[in-house]
């Protein structure tokens, strides 16, 4: 028997706790259940708000009487409690889907295998600098649901992972940005690229011809999927390989954006974010800004003074002429490819962690050109050794950030860069990629 007023939230992280607060505000009886331990500050919030919760278990009698279940993006479809919930016919949705019901704000949604946090942060920075009343949420910042409950923004910039998109059904994005599709999280998609790509394209569902779809015309997977489906939204592609109108392209060293009577140009040398991948990110953000008809001087200023997010190609400093860069957020091979592609010195590369079925072959050419030694940071480094032993003479195993930094420092020469860009998840030795990045930075400071 379902309770018509009861909503269950599975997972008590940022998104779950925010969803619980919004559900309570909307008059629902709310129960929060987390199979793991709940962090103290989230537990305190639930206590303060008088929301019932449990941790380290899922009580089925409680969960299976809900009218709806709001699921944390980290919980896979194959989890027993999700299977049982769906068998009972109880809808399972994301925090984003739920929160979207209670806001009239315009939504810019950004997804892609790589660059989405940078592009989301840059887009938000451009809009906020232009004086718009804008919120930042999704995979970044404060929970979307909590902001919907407590703020009155006219516009949100949302970073949307494929896991979030999987549990979104009626939610509509006014301006959708798809940066790229490269192999990632394939363990969640039956190791089928087409399943993962279809998940990314859910960002276009429910769009009408009054909406916009901004995408990379140079990304083969994106183009492949588009050939087989109808997109209702107005298309605004971007490319650094060919001239595109309407959309964005590179002319000599200038980004050129043309969107229905809106024109913009900016030299790539003036961009705060350097590297080929960041030209793409800047184009995507720039198109969104021009769709909103922001003034060119304001966009230029924002694109030139933007500070990148922590743990993404973050400069930690120089010691004895050796540069240290923290790119701990690079949890897949493609992110590491982008990091290496932007390096202009010889590199000591720190790789490793929880391997999600990585194909390291795409890194081989860059590693051959730029990497003098690989320092593995993970419990099981066999696949890294197998992939690179014929390309790099020195491959060393380490089991802590401190050890990895010290070994890298001794292997590096003056003028080299020590780059932490692991291409793997961090859960074998660290709490998360932030913890890995912070430990790396601390170890650099202690040299």
UniProtKB/TrEMBL annotation:
<feature type="domain" description="Mur ligase C-terminal">
    <location>
        <begin position="311"/>
        <end position="424"/>
    </location>
</feature>
<dbReference type="InterPro" id="IPR036615">
    <property type="entry name" value="Mur_ligase_C_dom_sf"/>
</dbReference>
<feature type="domain" description="Mur ligase central">
    <location>
        <begin position="110"/>
        <end position="288"/>
    </location>
</feature>
<keyword id="KW-0067">ATP-binding</keyword>
<keyword id="KW-0133">Cell shape</keyword>
<dbReference type="InterPro" id="IPR005762">
    <property type="entry name" value="MurD"/>
</dbReference>
<dbReference type="Pfam" id="PF08245">
    <property type="entry name" value="Mur_ligase_M"/>
</dbReference>
<comment type="similarity">
    <text>Belongs to the MurCDEF family.</text>
</comment>
<dbReference type="InterPro" id="IPR036565">
    <property type="entry name" value="Mur-like_cat_sf"/>
</dbReference>
<dbReference type="Pfam" id="PF21799">
    <property type="entry name" value="MurD-like_N"/>
</dbReference>
<keyword id="KW-0547">Nucleotide-binding</keyword>
<keyword id="KW-0132">Cell division</keyword>
<dbReference type="GO" id="GO:0051301">
    <property type="term" value="P:cell division"/>
</dbReference>
<keyword id="KW-0436">Ligase</keyword>
<feature type="binding site">
    <location>
        <begin position="112"/>
        <end position="118"/>
    </location>
    <ligand>
        <name>ATP</name>
    </ligand>
</feature>
<keyword id="KW-0961">Cell wall biogenesis/degradation</keyword>
<dbReference type="GO" id="GO:0008360">
    <property type="term" value="P:regulation of cell shape"/>
</dbReference>
<protein>
    <recommendedName>
        <fullName>UDP-N-acetylmuramoylalanine--D-glutamate ligase</fullName>
        <ecNumber>6.3.2.9</ecNumber>
    </recommendedName>
</protein>
<dbReference type="GO" id="GO:0005737">
    <property type="term" value="C:cytoplasm"/>
</dbReference>
<dbReference type="InterPro" id="IPR013221">
    <property type="entry name" value="Mur_ligase_cen"/>
</dbReference>
<dbReference type="Pfam" id="PF02875">
    <property type="entry name" value="Mur_ligase_C"/>
</dbReference>
<dbReference type="GO" id="GO:0008764">
    <property type="term" value="F:UDP-N-acetylmuramoylalanine-D-glutamate ligase activity"/>
</dbReference>
<dbReference type="GO" id="GO:0071555">
    <property type="term" value="P:cell wall organization"/>
</dbReference>
<keyword id="KW-0131">Cell cycle</keyword>
<comment type="function">
    <text>Cell wall formation. Catalyzes the addition of glutamate to the nucleotide precursor UDP-N-acetylmuramoyl-L-alanine (UMA).</text>
</comment>
<comment type="pathway">
    <text>Cell wall biogenesis; peptidoglycan biosynthesis.</text>
</comment>
<dbReference type="GO" id="GO:0009252">
    <property type="term" value="P:peptidoglycan biosynthetic process"/>
</dbReference>
<keyword id="KW-0573">Peptidoglycan synthesis</keyword>
<dbReference type="GO" id="GO:0005524">
    <property type="term" value="F:ATP binding"/>
</dbReference>
<dbReference type="InterPro" id="IPR004101">
    <property type="entry name" value="Mur_ligase_C"/>
</dbReference>
<keyword id="KW-0963">Cytoplasm</keyword>
